[in-house]
Amino acid sequence: MDVFTEYLTKIDNPDHRERTEEVLTWVTKEFPNLVPKIAWNQPMFTDHDTYIIGFSVSKQHLAVAPEKAGIDHFSDEIIEAGFDHTKELVRMKWNRPIDFSLLKKMIEFNIIDKADCTTFWRK
User: Which domains are present in the chain?
Assistant: First the structure.
């Protein structure tokens, strides 16, 4: 988690900082084989040098970015869970609980789906 310390200190809203730290800590504990890193000024996790999931903070939500394939695969579940999404990210509003079961499914999907991937992003 040390890799995220500076990023977290730059989040002005203490509630948003705490929630973001909670999510990053959860991913680190739930998926200890993933490598935490900061890239493009955002926290993310990789596996064998390929992108698995990333996060970013905005005023209204924590954005979860599992790549387009992850969004496409879980679009119905994302909507059923009460979140909206774009082609590239899920918006988890600050005033709602984080859906850790959905987050786990998205991460597991990317780990399996990208097991043989030799590039950072999907082609």
Answer: 2-113 (3.90.1150.200)
The H-assigned helical ranges of the chain are: 5-9, 14-30, 67-80, 100-113
Q: What pLDDT digit, counting tens, does each position of 30-46 carry?
A: 999 999 999 999 999 99
The 8-class DSSP code of residue 104 comes to: H
Nearest to 76 by CA among 85, 68, 67, 88: 85
d(CA 98, CA 34): 20
Q: What is the average pLDDT across 74-88?
A: 95
Q: Do the beta carbons of residue 8 and residue 17 sit within 8 Å?
A: yes
**Half-sphere exposure in the Cβ direction for 32 (13 Å, CA):** 1
